[in-house]
Specification:
The protein is mainly alpha-helical. The chain is about 65% helix and about 5% strand. The strands form 2 sheets. It has a 3-stranded antiparallel sheet, with no helix packed on it. Helix 6 crosses helix 8 and helix 7 runs antiparallel to helix 8. The protein is globular, with a radius of gyration of 19 Å.
């Protein structure tokens, strides 16, 4: 326990320094920086492998968000409710489950696969969704709804492209590969790859079906914003009112964690079978 506390203290300093840099770079809001510091400290308390995996995810995701940012904002600003700086809710929706798994790993029996599989799967799902969004938005043709197959505006939840789908697989693979490198094990890495891709799919399906949708009567366009870019207050147009994009991201991470754990457990059982 003393080792975990010592790592937590060191992790707090490292996470705070990274969060401060991200805050000055406008990647995080003030609340997002506070949440990121807490998440980072929790992960490092479980081990530097957990902390390193989280840092790699955050650095690459932030870099992708800044890549061709002006073009992506121009394409999606009238649709997405949040953009640019990540706030505390967004940080926790994407990294909170990973941090929870890290803390649970401290109490789990030595060699238990479920904490590392769950954590890696949750982070892989977050990476898959982030990469799909940040890269898929740049596709040369409009996305199509995963539910209806009809073209939708860039940034619309549940909209998919071939480029974005490939990016989601790459994002999950990135986290899975790093998980294996930092000591999570090959079985957890395989689970993370499967869980990450599946979690991103859950995100798209929920976004296209149950996520709250709004409508601007003035522009006659769908949006997730309460006030559209034209300045008009929008009205509800479907979905579950409280299920916003952050809630969908959290559900995606949970699905990724659950499936990753199940796949890893099945692989363990198969390896031990006669």
């Amino acid at each position: 326990m003393s080792d975990a506390l010592g790592r937590a203290g060191a992790g707090l300093l490292v996470a705070a320094a990274i969060a401060l840099v991200a805050r000055r770079a406008h990647s995080l809001s003030t609340s997002g920086a506070v949440a990121a510091t807490a998440v980072g400290a929790a992960c490092v308390a479980a081990g530097w492998g957990w902390g390193g995996l989280l840092i790699a995810y955050f650095v690459v995701s932030s870099a992708l968000s800044r890549w061709r940012e002006t073009l992506k904002e121009a394409r999606t600003s009238d649709v997405v409710a949040k953009g640019g700086q990540r706030d505390a809710v967004q940080v926790l929706a994407n990294g909170g489950l990973f941090a929870a798994a890290a803390l649970l790993s401290l109490a789990a029996p030595a060699g238990a696969i479920w904490p590392v599989a769950a954590g890696a799967g949750a982070l892989a799902a977050a990476a898959a969704d982030t990469w799909a969004t940040e890269i898929g938005t740049l596709a040369g043709h409009p996305p199509r709804s995963i539910r209806t197959g009809r073209p939708v505006a860039p940034g619309t939840s549940g909209g998919v492209t071939v480029l974005g789908t490939a990016a989601s697989i790459a994002g999950a693979g990135f986290v899975a590969a790093l998980a294996a490198l930092v000591g999570f094990g090959r079985l957890a890495a395989v689970g993370a790859l499967v869980g990450g891709v599946a979690g991103s799919l859950v995100d798209s399906l929920l976004g296209a079906t149950l996520q709250a949708r709004r409508w601007c009567d003035r522009c006659e366009r769908g949006t997730e914003r309460e006030v559209h870019g034209c300045g008009t207050r929008t009205r509800p147009a479907g979905g579950v009112g409280w299920l916003d994009n952050d809630a969908v991201n959290a559900a995606s991470a949970l699905a990724g964690a659950a499936l990753s754990t199940a796949v890893a457990a099945l692989l363990v059982a198969a390896r031990g079978a006669p």
